[in-house]
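Example record used in the benchmark description.
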Amino acid sequence: MEVVDWPIHRIAALAGTTSRTLRHYDSVGLLAPTRVAGNGYRHYDQAALVRLQRILLLRELGLGLPVIAAVLDHQESAAAALEAHVNWLRSEQERLARQIASVEKTIESVRKGGTLMAEQMFDGFDHTHYKDEVEQRWGKDAYARGDAWWRGLGASGQAAWKERLAVLNSDWIEAFSSGVPASSAEAQDLARRHVEWLTSVPGTPASSPDGDVRGYVTGLGEMYVADPRFGANYGGEAGAAYVRDALALYAEREL
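Model output (structure tokens):
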């Protein structure tokens, strides 16, 4: 069977990147060309394209190149990793579609001089699309308290909280990708930070002095593995399983 590949400039154009970037990916051991032609042009086959797609997806999550390389090396199945990511993308697609529809309605009202509907203007702009799921899992009071807390943070507080979470997720991925055991001091310190982050959110069992913190933490760990939307935060199912195991050990010893 004839092997089909494409020259570097063609791949760069299709992927919306540059030949220089692709050469850099090669220099750091992230994406090697399939072959180099006699004229010096680098060529990439289908397997290389799949790897490049995964690299670009992980870049969009804000991961650095060393962490991306480690994640790719530890994920056994490209298909499984992409499936987890596409589930996350679909969730984002739904949220963005709602934002677009909301803004389009605002544009139409402004152009026609109509009355703006406040309840429709901000659809898709915050976390409230998880309302039904949160209430089903943890009750209406949990959502109400968490929602009030979130809105009370303000824009700067929300940004800082999101940054804290992004750093935590990135550190989890790096620890897993580096082969650090879930029982190690490093992983257990991450588990401690994770629990501290969970206890900072009002309305959850982790935030209540008499709540079942151990059960909540271990239950979330299982959910990280079972739900691809959460697994995508840790590089896929294998990374989520690592987080689950570390949290379970921490909960058993400390909670």
